[in-house]
Structure formats: C-alpha cells, structure tokens
Amino acid sequence: MYKPTILVWSGSAREASFNKKLARQAAAFAEEAGASVTFVDLRDIPLPVFDQDLEAREGEPENATKFKALMKKADGMIIASPEHNSSYSALLKNTIDWASRQQENEKPLECFTGKTAAIISASPGGLGGLRGLVTLRMLLSNLGMVVVPEQFALSGAGDAFNEDGTLKDDKKSEAVRGVARALVSATSKLNAKS
Q1: CB 6 within 8 A of CB 78
Q2: How many Å from the N-terminal Cα to the C-terminal Cα in the chain?
Q3: What is the number of H-type helices and E-type strands within the chain?
Q4: Closest Cα to residue 124, out of 158, 152, 153?
Q5: What does the pLDDT average to over 165-178?
Q6: pLDDT of residue 125 exceeding 50
Q7: Domains, the chain
Q8: Residue 118 Ramachandran class (φ > 0 left, ψ -120 to 50 alpha, else beta)
Q9: Where are the alpha helices (DSSP H) in the chain?
Q10: What is the mean pLDDT of residues 56-66?
Q11: What is the DSSP letter of 85?
Q12: HSE-up of 166 (CA within 13 Å, CB side)?
C-alpha cells in the first residue's frame, strides 16, 4: 500500500515558536493518517540571505543542498507560516528562494512542481496569521505546488498549547487533524499507481 512522504517545517527559527509547535502537532496527525513524516527545524540548517553573486562565487550552500534533498524525497509538505507584516516570514521566503534555484542535473523547480502542500499558521493575534497564508498560498501555487483548500490559522497562540506542545482546545486540534488528513489523502490520490 502506498505511503506518502510528508516534509513538515515552519518558517520560524525561534526556539519557542508557536508555528513550530503547530507544525509538530500537524506532523503527528499526518503520521496518524498514514504518512511517513519528516519534521525539519530551519534553525538546524541555517542559510545565508539569498545572493546571486554569493551563489556564483561559492555555489549552492551545503545546507541548501541538504534541505533540497529532503524536499525532493517528499511527496508533499506541511508548512507552518508566521505572519510578518501581513505576509510570510523572511526566513520562509529565503528558504524557498534557495530551494528554487536550479542546479546542474536538476529540473526547474524540482523541489516544488507537482508536490502537494498544506498551510497552517499560529499567532498571538486574533486572526492567527491568516493574512500570511493568503500570500503563501499564492507563492506555492506559482511554484507549481498543489495546495489543498483546507488550511488552519490558530489565534491566541500564546495560550493555546499544553506543556507537551499539544493543543488545549479539541476543536482546534480536530481542525489541524483535518488539514493533515486532507493533505495525506490528496497526496495519496495524486501519487497512486494507475
């Protein structure tokens, strides 16, 4: 039986990031739904700010190559995006910019094209980072990803988690589970052998 591979990551490097907590919760639900899941913390693979002169001079950074290898292996992704000034974070965009660079023996946008994505966010504010998801959906779609309609924005994130990182509210937890299930289902259908 086909088991989709899902890469889960957050566009926040902060150690106590609400988006990292939400990403880990979504990762657990994707695994529960039958996927093989890898969670990656961008803090563990730091990248320089994208600079084409740097790339020309030194080549692709080692950590960009590492992250791209994880992306290539994945059938789909769950991305938890902080909202910075009504859009996605600079860290998230910088990571995507490096991953989008075509190297020798790579197809254009190989890390993105035809892969599925689910987007979620968390914020202490009342909208839960929802405005950032609008621009993230557009970006990922433009890169050739199939972004599932289901998404989730967690408001009041400062008080939303238990000490073990799970969500306190059952309805919110079920909403995240629904997003993860939708992604696993869509990914399975798109990659099913005919």
Answers
A1: yes
A2: 13
A3: 6, 5
A4: 158
A5: 98
A6: yes
A7: 5-191 (3.40.50.360)
A8: beta
A9: 18-32, 52-58, 62-73, 90-99, 130-142, 170-191
A10: 97
A11: T
A12: 10
Other CB atoms within 10 A of residue 117 CB: 25
SS3 179: helix
Structure tokens that stand for 36 in this block: 């093989």
Q: Which residues lie below 8 Å from residue 171, measured CB to CB, with a gap of 6+?
A: none
CA distances from residue 137 to 141, 147, 154 in whole angstroms, order as listed: 6, 7, 17
Query: What's the length of the chain?
Result: 194
pTM above 0.85, yes or no: yes
Residue 50 is classified by DSSP as P
Positive or negative, the CA dihedral 66, 137, 18, 92 is: positive
Residue pLDDT, tens place only, 148-161: 999 999 999 999 99
DSSP secondary structure letter of residue 109:
T
Report the candidate in 145, 163, 161, 175 with the shortest Cα–Cα distance to residue 26: 175
Residue 33 has pLDDT above 90, yes or no: yes
8-state DSSP, 142: H
